[in-house]
Amino acid sequence: MSDWLEAEQRAERAQQLCESQRFEEAIAELDAALSINPDNATWHAQRGLLLEELDCTADAVEAYERALELDPGDVEVALSLGGALVRLGHLARALVIIDDLAGQYPDLEPVYCARIQIYTELGRHDKAEEMFYLAQQLNDSCPDCFYHIGISLAARGQTDRAIFCWQRVLDLEPDYAGVNQRIAQAFRDRKDFARAKEYLLLEVRADPGDTELLFELADLAREAGQISDAATRLAQIIELDPNYVDALAALGKLRLDLGTPAEAIHCFEAAVSAAKGAPRVRDFNLHFGLAFFRVGKWADARIQFLKAAKRKPRDQRVAMLLGECALAQDRPEEAIEWYQRILSRNARNPFAHYKLGVCRIRRGRYAAGLENCLTALSIRPDWEAAAHHAALAYVHLEQWGQARAMVRRALRRHPNSQPLVRLGRRIWRFQLARHLCAIPRAMGIRCSWRGPEIPHLDTRDAQP
To answer: What is the pLDDT along the chain (464 residues), one digit of tens a residue?
Structure first.
């Protein structure tokens, strides 16, 4: 058998393997054929198509380029090369190739269709629409044209027109990949969750094992407030793929929202274990920390919050939670550092002012703490906790009139606040005792009773 005949037989064998979707074996046969006859443009082009099936797009580009070197007039290969370059994000280079084809073949509809996609991804939507109408004059039933112009319209906020174009795609090609997902996202953006779910389910039914689609369906259910459905979907994903990090973390967040932080911790621990060696870092340290925080595991919560702070150093919420952990662990000086860091970036943050005041009062720096509480009240005058602590600081400074006035003002806003009512009564009793003791003292009679004990400062309160 001659080498040329063997090459032909291997190329035929590659075609048979390709029809059976045994792509890697087909490439091996083509490589063997090309080792005998490296100048066969058709085989290089076929090799490019097989490499794309295996998501080896960069290698496919090289195969298409070699095919075009051998046969510069092959329009199909040039279009394939342009498409592969678009998938790699090399839009300018793809546009040069497609524009050159359009110059040679002005009546070839695919060159206009390809440019709709390229101009859409470049953000040149006017040109994309121009190409769409030119393509319509040559072929008004191309599903690819409608699909890509729909993406362009959606990017411009023209959701109704985008949905119309995508539904037109379904009319032309009911099994068009990804279009139901696009329509679902459009309805989701409009908060029409029922219609979004309808179209997303159609996409899922076409590929029920696609965990990415199932995750999107679970996230849609969560956004729609269908928590039970979302949890069921996430459990289904984890059953299919126990190491699906995002699903484990999402289920943890869901458990946290449902008020079961202990269950959330189990989910996050599984997510951490599954994430080892993952190609990207999943950002769920904040929620993991919150789960520990809500079960009173301050040290574990602090570790997670520090990781979140390293990832997002300017996130004020994380800094506040680190301050809370420090307070819970009786480390007010560390808490002060976190709240001062927040105020250095946002001097009008009332919570940071208030908590800084709490820390300073806990350290016995009543005047400085009072100033912080008053600043918080100037920003949020209706804040009961800040008013209560400001009044307590006045008591410790023995500024009874100011303390009583603060309680009165706060009670006008919060007439049913029992802590304020109790504090007001204690202040009144203490002032009365001082007044009664003043009479015998004026007569030279010693009075050792100082009245009710000054109330201790209670720094426990919830984050606003």
So the answer is: 467 788 788 888 888 888 888 888 888 888 888 888 888 888 888 888 988 988 899 999 999 899 899 888 889 999 999 999 999 999 999 999 999 999 999 999 999 999 999 999 999 999 999 999 999 999 999 999 999 999 999 999 999 999 999 999 999 999 999 999 999 999 999 999 999 999 999 999 888 889 999 999 999 999 999 988 999 999 999 999 999 999 999 999 999 988 999 999 999 999 988 887 554 545 789 999 999 999 999 999 999 999 999 988 889 999 999 999 998 888 888 999 999 999 999 999 999 999 999 899 888 899 999 999 999 999 999 999 999 999 989 988 989 889 999 999 999 999 999 988 988 888 887 777 666 665 555 555 555 544 444 444 444 443 43
Contact between residue 391 and residue 357 where contact means Cβ atoms under 8 Å apart? no
Distance of alpha carbon 383 from alpha carbon 352, whole angstroms: 13
**Rounded distance, CA 354 to CA 371, Å?**
9
Torsion angle of the four alpha carbons 129, 135, 136, 137, in this order, in degrees rounded to the nearest 10: 120
Element (H, E) at 254: helix 245-257
Closest CA to 114 of 95, 134, 141: 95
Name the token pair of 383: 């804040």
HSE (side-chain half, CA atoms, 13 Å) at 215: 14
**Residue 313 and residue 392: Cα distance in Å, rounded?**
34
User: Can you tell me the distance from the alpha carbon of 411 to that of 147, in angstroms, rounded to the nearest whole number?
Assistant: 62
Longest C-alpha distance within the chain, in Å? 133
User: pTM for the whole thing?
Assistant: 0.72
Burial letters 149-184, b for 16+ CB under 10 A, else e: bbbbbbebeebeebbebbbbbbebbeebeebbbbbb
Q: For residue 12, give the DSSP letter.
A: H
In the DSSP assignment, the letter for residue 207 is S
Contacts 24+ apart (CB under 8 A), 75-83: 75/101, 75/105, 75/108, 76/45, 77/41, 77/45, 77/48, 79/110, 79/111, 79/114, 80/45, 80/48, 80/49, 80/52, 81/48, 82/114, 82/118, 83/114
